[in-house]
Design a protein that fits this description.
With 185 residues, the protein is of the alpha+beta class. Helices cover 54% and strands 9% of the residues. A 4-stranded mixed beta sheet has the order 3-2-1-4. It is elongated. The N and C termini lie far apart (64 Å).
Length: 185
């Protein structure tokens, strides 16, 4: 029986034996499959098969733990210590919203950077190199796609300074493009 929530969210059931069952595909899956769904932009909800309790948060945390244990950590120790110290603090309720907004800002800045670099190197000898570098940058930031669990350190710069920074980067890229065009003549 294929099952999807009314809003298009895939329902995944977790059984007592720790197995995960994707009700959309009628198949058992792993945490790696769920991580792949996140990277593909698929939304899902994990429920306890016996109680129907929403345990998505716990499973996402488990995915982060597995990713971190593979050796290429993304969460710095200092950030983890700061995060842990916020539990029980009077500001605890504000942290999730702040982290989510920071991650959204990071993703927007990533897209702006990608567009600026692509535009700066279009139709130059360095276009292929720029594309490869952007692909590596994209691969390095896969965990920050919408729907992914929040968990990176939040930027502290204000929106105005970010705009100024972006303008400076665009100006630098334009200058580099002009130099490259002179070299190509």
């Amino acid at each position: 029986m294929k099952k999807q929530a009314a809003d298009g969210v895939v329902i995944v059931k977790k059984y007592a034996n720790r197995r995960l069952y994707n009700t959309e595909t009628s198949s058992y899956i792993t945490l790696d499959h769920l991580a792949g769904m996140i990277r593909a932009g698929r939304d899902f909800k994990v429920v306890d098969a016996k109680t129907d309790e929403d345990i998505t948060h716990n499973v996402l945390t488990q995915i982060i733990m597995e990713e971190e244990s593979r050796g290429e950590t993304m969460l710095p120790v200092n950030f983890l210590r700061q995060l842990i110290s916020m539990y029980g603090d009077s500001m605890q309720a504000m942290v999730p919203g702040y982290l989510e907004a920071s991650m959204d800002s990071f993703r927007r800045n990533q897209e702006q950077f990608k567009s600026a670099v692509e535009g700066a190197f279009a139709n130059t000898p360095f276009a292929d190199l720029a594309k490869r570098n952007l692909a590596m940058f994209e691969a390095a930031t896969q965990g920050f796609k919408p729907g992914a669990a929040a968990g990176a350190a939040a930027p502290t710069a204000s929106a105005a300074s970010k705009d100024a920074e972006m303008a400076a980067l665009k100006a630098e890229l334009a200058a580099l493009k002009a130099k490259i065009e002179k070299l190509g003549e």
